[in-house]
Amino acid sequence: MSFRKILWCFGLGTIFLTGIYAFQKPFREYPGIEYNNFPKPPDYQEKTEWAFARLMYPQSRRGFGGGFGFRGNGDWREGYSMWTQDYPRADRHFSEAVRRLTRIHVRSVEQPVNLDDGDDVYNWPWLYAVQTGQWQLTDAQAKQLREYLLRGGFFMCDDFWGEAQWRNFMESMRRVFPDRAVVDIPDDDPIFHVVYDLSDRYQVPGARYIQTGVTEKCAGCPARWRGIYGERGRLVVAMTFQSDVGDSWEWADDPGYDEKFSALGIRIGVNYIVYSMTH
Questions:
Q1: Can you give the pTM of this predicted structure?
Q2: What DSSP assignment string belongs to 243-272?
Q3: Is the CATH code 3.90.580.10 the one for domain 47-278?
């Protein structure tokens, strides 16, 4: 390739990245139900190719247990809501792990994403939500999430347990994809093998395991690895139902939390990210 072509390609790439950064919402923080004033890494303002995007959502007021409920003034757009569980500790620990285990240029801090913020969600190709058994999307948000997924986005939802939370989760998810089935992801799916071989998967418990030694949050709740596929056979929604992968990231630095659970949780996350970027 000639020097002129190299310069031309470099210039085009610079314009492309500058355009992406110009339309992204700047980094923002909210008070969480577990953490406030969590220290920011010194490089938190660095521009990178990937960031952990955490979905903000309205919380159901039905009360399913297993969470912290509302705090503050009850406005989910200002934090203190179930979407902030584990936040930002889990996000930052996991982002650090992805930096160490892959060659992806990862931002050291997360990005809360609100589906009501116009087209902002399209700037974040991998989206994560916790406690989705307690969400309650509006019709407009469900429509925006559907469009995001149809355009190539990837959504990982985590830490929801039992049939009551599953039903509540599906009330919103059916409005996102009324025409697509939720299925158990087969063991030979590429998402379980794209980086790490995850043939041996087991339930990832929450931090309460440290005191109880019990991995389940409800009786008779085995881990399920479920998902929704797009028209071309690409997995677009991955559900770690009845596991708490977020806690495995959050407590990865705690010697009281069994290393095998953090090891699996981090590998699951890495596989899901790389799959979303390569499929």
A1: 0.90
A2: --HHHHHHTTT-TTS-HHHHHHHHHHHHHH
A3: no
